[in-house]
Design goal:
It comes from Leucobacter komagatae. InterPro entries: PhnD. This is Phosphate ABC transporter substrate-binding protein. It holds the Pfam family Phosphonate-bd. Keywords: Signal. The structure is a single chain. This protein starts with 5 loop residues before the first helix and ends with a helix. The relative contact order is 0.19. By secondary structure, the protein is α/β, with parallel strands linked by helices. Helix 1 crosses helix 4, helix 3 crosses helix 11 and helix 7 packs across helix 13. The strands form 3 sheets. The chain has a 6-stranded mixed β-sheet with strand order 2-1-3-12-4-13, with helices on both faces. The protein has 2 domains: 191 residues, 3-Layer(aba) Sandwich (D-Maltodextrin-Binding Protein, domain 2), CATH 3.40.190.10; 133 residues, 3-Layer(aba) Sandwich (D-Maltodextrin-Binding Protein, domain 2), CATH 3.40.190.10. The longest helix is centred in the first third of the chain and has 21 residues. The chain contains 13 helices and 13 strands.
Length: 336
């Protein structure tokens, strides 16, 4: 999707939300629908109306085909811990997961930061947990290339089997952003506008560097972070956007990806993704789900599973106010 003005952005965002609703409604979700217009009950009445099954919505940050299978141990744990069947589904895109929660088709969402904010703002969902990755609660988006001679002002350095230049090996943002001026006319692999790392923050950096993101780059749409890495690796794009460090996902199958795909710049830090719970659930069930997920992330088995799903090392209590910065970034691009 390309954007040329705030007015056009608003129209396209509405269209995106409408399409996402349609996509969400086409997913087969057994026995989970709730009314978004009904008054929210409390106490024993709310608990008595909790659903007999729950749906965990996952967003496609990596290969969609295997994501539900990868998450199966998590949904099995929740089913046993809660005494309620929990099923995992992968939404068509980030926005569809938000709309599925709003439509009562999903009650638990593992969502990026912008979608956490939207789920709360639009549908009253509670952000209960945020992720930690190796002790960090924020992360940068990265600019990757297969033409380091063009974008690197210095010799790429190796770190953990992957190449970085322009100071990006510090692994925190911002870094190397002066080099993005060389992207005029480049083919760029970008995720959809709902992705903080795969679209919003890199595009905002380009906009702040004076780019017209509608005309100054050739956008190559991809559906997931690993797909952006592969687009650069395969030469379909000379630059790609992703979260740090999506090359690790691809390296499982393509060991030399860290050498051929070089990270040359990083954006400002982005608040980590997390877990949202539908407002239709009773406070008691919300707390049980929150406690179960937090305990799961503290266990060796659970930590390993969460690492394989979204590179999560721990689930910690959420700070909903930290998400405002992502909403402001999206607004600057006309996406909110």
């Amino acid at each position: 999707m390309r954007i040329s003005s705030l007015r056009t952005n608003a129209l396209r965002t509405n269209a995106l939300r409408t399409a996402a609703v349609g996509a969400a409604l086409t997913v087969t979700l057994a026995g989970c629908s709730t009314s978004g217009e009904a008054a929210s009950p409390t106490g024993e009445e709310a608990a008595s109306k909790d659903p007999s099954s729950l749906v965990l919505a996952l967003v496609p940050s990596q290969d969609q085909d295997g994501l539900v299978d990868t998450a199966a141990p998590l949904t099995e744990f929740l089913t046993e811990e809660l005494g309620i069947e929990v099923t995992g589904v992968v939404s068509k895109d980030y926005q569809a997961a938000v709309e599925a929660m709003g439509a009562g088709q999903a009650q638990i969402g593992f969502l990026p930061s912008l979608q956490l904010w939207q789920a709360n703002d639009m549908y009253g969902a509670e952000t209960v947990l945020q992720t930690e990755r190796n002790g960090n609660i924020t992360y940068p988006a990265q600019f990757m290339t297969n033409i380091p001679d063009k974008y690197c002002e210095d010799t790429p350095v190796e770190r953990d089997g992957k190449l970085f230049c322009n100071g990006a090996d510090a692994l925190t943002g911002p870094a190397g952003l002066a080099s993005i001026a060389k992207m005029k006319g480049a083919k760029v692999a970008a995720l959809g506008p709902g992705s903080p790392a795969g679209y919003i923050y890199p595009m905002l950096a380009l906009q702040e560097a004076g780019f017209d993101i509608d005309t100054d780059i050739q956008q190559i749409p991809v559906t997931a972070n690993d797909a952006a890495v592969l687009a650069v690796y395969n030469g379909d794009a000379e630059v790609g956007f992703s979260f740090w460090d999506a090359r690790d996902i691809v390296a499982k199958d393509i060991p030399d990806v860290g050498e051929k795909v070089v990270v040359f710049a990083m954006t400002e830090e982005i608040p980590n993704d997390g877990v949202a719970l539908s407002s239709s659930l009773s406070p008691e069930l919300q707390q049980r789900i929150t406690d179960a997920l937090a305990a799961y992330s503290e266990s060796a088995e659970g930590s390993a599973i969460l690492e394989s799903i979204y590179s999560i090392t721990k689930l910690a209590p959420a700070n909903p106010d930290s998400l405002d910065v992502v909403a402001r970034a999206a607004q600057a691009l006309g996406l909110k």
